Amino acid sequence: MESGMLLSGRQRALIRESWQRVSGSPVQHGLVLFTRLFDLDPDLLPLFQYNCKQFGSPQECLSAPEFLDHIRKVMLVIDVAVSHLENLSCLEEYLCNLGKKHQAVGVKVESFSTVGESLLYMLEKCLGTAFNPDMREAWSKLYGAVVKAMRRGWETLPEGV
User: How far is CA 40 from the centre of its chain?
Assistant: First the structure.
């Protein structure tokens, strides 16, 4: 994962500025992200089980305390990435392991594009007209770098596991 070379100084500033406006309400904004995710791909809902309980609807899942904890964790990962924009490579091992965890619970690599769409949707909804094409491009680059590192978690598992 390239360090700050991936993003220009302007792109890093756009990401920081926009995240500062969103990060104060992580659960609220995370709910926007995951509501959109389930709208785009309802087949992801069964991946979220807690204590062997399957949710009957996205609304049931989105209101479960365990799922709200998951939202906090997702938003924290974004926060960590934003905090390390100049040195994203220091997150490589962490993100690779996060990828392994996602694979272990049945997440498909292809689902990350839907998550990326949902992230951009959340930013657009929460920031309104401030979310401009330059900001979209900056976030897309950052998200692409995070996913690239997480995908390595799939690649490092032995065949058949």
Answer: 15
The residue count of the chain comes to 161
* φ and ψ at residue 65, rounded to 5 degrees: -55, -35
- The span from the CA of 135 to the CA of 133, in Å, is 5
Phi, psi of 109 (to 5 degrees): -55, -35
93-139: pLDDT as tens digits: 999 999 999 998 889 988 999 999 999 999 999 999 999 999 999 99
b/e 33-50 (16+ beta carbons within 10 angstroms → b): bbbbbbeebeebbeebee
**Tokens 């976030």 label which residue?**
139
Q: Rounded to whole angstroms, how far apart are CA atoms 33 and 146?
A: 17
3-class DSSP assignment, residue 55: coil
First to last CA, the chain: 25
The enclosing H or E element of 66 equals helix 65-83
Residue with tokens 């991946």: 47
Name the DSSP class of 54: P
Which helix H or strand E contains 157, and what residues bound it? none
Q: Which residues contact 82 (CB under 8 A, 6 or more apart)?
A: 15, 16, 19, 23, 142
pTM higher than 0.85, yes or no? yes
The percentage of the chain sitting over the pLDDT mark of 90, rounded to a whole number, equals: 79
